[in-house]
Design goal:
CATH topology: CHAD domain
Distance between the termini: 11 Å
Number of helices: 12
Number of strands: 0
Number of domains: 1
Radius of gyration: 21 Å
CATH superfamily: CHAD domain
Shape: globular
Strand content: under 5%
Length: about 325
């Protein structure tokens, strides 16, 4: 299942094809009871792909349908968040403990004990709720009216997401708090997935951008994980852990966050270096040229596909 538009298909058909594939993938992951942690993680990725798709074609489906479907998908994601956050905190504590020694390592281990004692909601119950919500969203998605046209509708979506990313970058640089970096991460993720959707325009260039955005998103993801862990530690004050111990967890989390932010910011500046309008126009021109090349050399994609697949096997997520 390819998460990208085809050069020769209508926008309406492309939106329905890509969206339907992601809904089916999400449902399949949720029915995989063998690994509930992985199934939740993979389902969340499908939802993020669907939201990136909706944002890209926002101009083609209209503001009201966009707002409604985006909000519904966001709420589905929120149903999965608590279980995912617990697993992420465990992984983050493991990374934190690996960097600590002495008393700091003991405090991190005690926080893990508190986390493990908190009973999560049953995975089966969560999956049932999400499957029901996904089914309704899937049926509504199949009825969305998509205005067919050229690349104009996609150009508008690309430009809007790119501009939002640049603004989030400025915010993260000028007011570097947890929320600012979380917003930057979400914009980078949206850009990454939209580059995959339009990758036929210029496969090597688009996938290079997607790969760079994915790297930044992963760095900012770990940064956010430490923010979540620090927030959770706050809830354990006077609950078996002393304030001094919580403060130590905070110090270690914030130190790691600073390292990750210093790494991610220059990478994000490079990713969003171009002006939004110029970037979107460049993509529109590339799409048109790709269509012309397809007419002249029908087999060009088949020739390039094997080498490209080897280089980009990890990006299509």
């Amino acid at each position: 299942m390819a998460y990208r538009f085809k050069l020769k298909e209508s926008l309406s058909r492309g939106v329905r094809r890509v969206g339907s594939e992601q809904f089916e993938l999400a449902e399949g992951h949720l029915r995989n009871a063998a690994d509930p942690v992985s199934s939740i993680h993979e389902t969340r990725k499908c939802i993020k792909r669907l939201r990136a798709l909706l944002r890209l074609v926002r101009a083609a489906i209209g503001e009201k349908p966009y707002q409604h479907e985006n909000r519904e998908l966001q709420q589905i994601g929120h149903l999965l968040s608590p279980a995912r956050d617990r697993e992420v905190m465990r992984q983050t504590l493991t990374k934190l403990e690996a960097r600590l020694s002495g008393n700091r390592k003991i405090i991190a281990a005690r926080l893990r004990e508190h986390l493990d004692r908190t009973a999560p909601q049953e995975a089966g119950e969560i999956h049932g709720k999400v499957l029901s919500s996904l089914g309704r969203a899937k049926r509504r998605f199949a009825q969305i009216k998509v205005q067919n046209g050229g690349f104009d509708a996609l150009e508008a979506g690309l430009q809007a997401t790119y501009r939002k990313g640049r603004r989030a970058l400025v915010q993260a640089q000028t007011e570097p708090d947890d929320e600012a970096f979380h917003d930057l991460r979400k914009s980078v993720q949206q850009h990454w997935r939209q580059m995959l959707l339009v990758s036929r325009a210029w496969p090597d260039m688009c996938r290079s951008r997607a790969s760079a955005a994915r790297d930044i998103a992963q760095i900012l993801g770990e940064e956010h994980d430490h923010a979540v862990l620090a927030s959770y530690a706050d809830t354990q004050r006077n609950n078996g852990l002393a304030n001094e111990e919580i403060d130590i967890i905070h110090q270690d989390c914030r130190a790691r966050q600073l390292e990750l932010r210093n790494l991610a910011l220059p990478m994000a500046r490079r990713l969003f270096a171009e002006r939004p309008r110029r970037f979107a126009h460049h993509m529109a021109e590339s799409w048109q040229v790709a269509r012309e090349l397809g007419d002249l050399e029908p087999d060009i994609d088949a020739v390039a596909r094997p080498a490209r697949a080897r280089r980009t096997a990890k990006i299509d997520e």
